[in-house]
Design a protein that fits this description.
This is Transmembrane protein. Keywords: Membrane, Transmembrane, Transmembrane helix. It comes from Sinorhizobium fredii (strain NBRC 101917 / NGR234). InterPro entries: Brnchd-chn_aa_trnsp_AzlD. The termini are far apart. The relative contact order is 0.10. The protein has about 90 residues and is mostly helical. The chain has helices at about 1-5, 10-35, 40, 45-60, 65-85. Helix 4 runs antiparallel to helix 5. The protein is built from 5 helices and no strands. About 80% of the residues lie in helices and about 0% in strands. It has one domain.
Length: about 90
């Protein structure tokens, strides 16, 4: 807490922390897409990749609002699973 007050928003240390956090989130998402468990393990890879792609497009079209990308990706995945009979 004390050290956090002394860090500037544009400091190299904070940029490094943000980069590491972003890389960790990307790694978890990639792991969930490529090596899923449960029902996702039964779903085809093209559906999982397609849902993430459509979600990313929605994220950028909605002026980088995370909720738009996440909701769209979940909706595409749910519709795809329903359409495939899961």
């Amino acid at each position: 807490m004390l050290a956090g007050k002394r860090l500037r928003d544009d400091s190299e240390a904070l940029n490094w922390v943000r980069a590491v956090a972003t890389a960790l989130v990307a790694a978890v998402i990639a792991k969930l897409i490529l090596y899923p468990t449960g029902v996702l393990a039964q779903s085809p890879l093209w559906l999982r990749v397609g849902a993430v792609t459509v979600g990313a497009i929605a994220f950028f079209l909605a002026r980088q609002k995370p909720v738009a990308g996440i909701a769209t990706a979940i909706a595409v995945l749910a519709f795809g699973l329903w359409w495939l009979g899961f």
